[in-house]
């Protein structure tokens, strides 16, 4: 239970950065932190006390003791997609910097042209 | 598990430093600390595949973020002083945490998951797919269409990056 609460606090730190910060880089950092905390939360849900890795290293291993493999498979997909999303956001932020010469979101008001 | 709790507390401290630091390069390095802590947490949670992928992805995204921060002047010259907005957001996050605690009481406790279809995968995957790694057999065999969708999203993002950063074909304004 404590693990879940701590994970949610990590999520809240990222959400705080997105809602309150005016620097585009800080907003991207907040998005990264939220993504990490959600990945961690899914893996925490799949953990079993005294569990072992879901890999058969020998034939006499008992599958009943292994941790839940499905959250791990889904998160493996989500991590890679997170990298692609970070790439796209940083590219857009660099384009904005090229046009406005600042990362301050209050200065980015000229949406036309 | 005490190790996991210590690691998550470390990640929270690094995240707070990343959010509140004035120096943008220091903030990006702190995000790297969060990601590497997450990688070690995956190892403790018996997910070595995730730990390896997280390590590689973390290093790549760190390089990309440093490219964005590496601009010399004016990158970190953004003043952040708002008392009313900050306190309102903190109150909202407190309400969110209270409701999240209420709903966390409903899901299974930490360390005792409901293993539904995964039980069948664990029992049968070695026989049906021949893969020793159950996670890989799920990704590439049972749920291969998911992985196809992931590749689609990845290439869509690459096309988006190319469309945003391209120089050729863009009309230059005099």
Short descriptors:
heterodimer, A: 113 residues, mainly alpha, Helix Hairpins, 65% helix, 0% strand, B: 174 residues, 2 domains
Structure description:
The complex is a heterodimer of chains A (113) and B (174). Chain A is an all-alpha fold. Chain A has a single domain (2-100), classed as Helix Hairpins (Orthogonal Bundle), CATH 1.10.287. Helices cover 65% and strands 0% of the residues of chain A. Chain A has three helices and no strands. Chain A has helices at 2-20, 24-45, 69-100. The radius of gyration of chain A is 20 Å and the shape is elongated. The termini of chain A are far apart. The model of chain A has no long low-confidence stretch (mean pLDDT 86). Chain B is mostly helical. Chain B has two domains: 1-78; 100-167, no CATH class. In chain B, 73% of the residues lie in helices and 0% in strands. Chain B has helices at 2-20, 24-44, 48-69, 83-104, 117-128, 134-142, 144-165. Chain B is extended and about 60 Å long. The model of chain B has no long low-confidence stretch (mean pLDDT 85). The chains are: A mainly alpha (113), B mainly alpha (174). The interface between A and B is large, with 79 and 87 residues.
Q: Output the CATH class name of chain A.
A: Mainly Alpha
Helix % of chain B is: over 70%
Count of beta strands of chain A: 0
Helix/sheet category of chain A: mainly alpha
Enumerate the spans of chain B where pLDDT stays under 50 for 5 or more consecutive residues.
none
Poorly predicted runs of chain A: none
How much helicity do the residues of chain A have? 55-70%
Main sheet characteristics of chain B: none
CATH topology of chain A: Helix Hairpins
Global morphology of chain A: elongated
How many independent structural domains of chain A? Answer: 1
Largest sheet of chain A: none
Topology (elements, then pairings):
The complex is a heterodimer of chains A (113) and B (174).
Chain A: H1 2-20, H2 24-45, H3 69-100
Chain B: H1 2-20, H2 24-44, H3 48-69, H4 83-104, H5 117-128, H6 134-142, H7 144-165
Helix pairs in contact in B: 1-2, 2-3, 6-7
